[in-house]
Write a structure and sequence with these properties.
Length: 167
């Protein structure tokens, strides 16, 4: 079982991203274009709180929220290997849909993608003080997937801090 990093944690939920996708390799009805209003929950960790006493100042997550909106708000998501990709690109060029090509549109890969986005933002901004250790990607109230991992740079920066504190 995966455990969160030791220290302080908090979470932030984002919702209201209506988009559609299809899983072209699925043998059932998921190979058809269908849509959901996606939502996402991010879990953050820090060994030390910031000057305001926060793990993450939620107002500082506006760049992440913009990425979510740009990727998932009224967009059409397709896998990069979708055999109809050229047709989707043509419909995008004609203004019929707002295309986003992803490695895989499934919620599992979406959760991992968003974990990467959050950690890029946090590592650049907080220089290893914080990390995102888990993301839940939800397509509706019944279906969700998570990705959880502690970035190597967070583990190593906090090991160094613990070692220097112990001296």
């Amino acid at each position: 079982m995966f455990l969160p990093p030791a220290g302080f944690t908090c979470s932030k939920h984002f919702e209201g991203y209506p988009c559609c996708h299809r899983q072209w390799q699925h043998s059932g009805h998921c190979h058809f274009v269908h849509g959901y209003s996606r939502s996402f929950t991010f879990w953050f960790a820090a060994k030390e709180l910031d000057i305001c006493g926060f793990v993450v100042d939620f107002s500082s997550l506006r760049p992440l929220e913009k990425q979510l909106r740009d990727q998932f708000d009224h967009t059409f998501l397709v896998n990069q290997d979708d055999p109809l990709l050229e047709q989707w690109r043509s419909l995008h060029a004609q203004g019929a849909l707002d295309l986003r090509v992803m490695k895989n549109v499934g919620m599992e890969n979406t959760a991992q993608l968003l974990w990467n986005w959050a950690n890029e933002l946090l590592n650049e901004r907080d220089l290893g003080r914080t990390c995102c250790w888990k993301v839940e990607a939800r397509e509706n109230v019944n279906n969700e997937a998570t990705y959880s991992s502690v970035p190597e740079w967070f583990e190593s920066s906090n090991s160094e801090n613990s070692a220097s504190t112990a001296i």
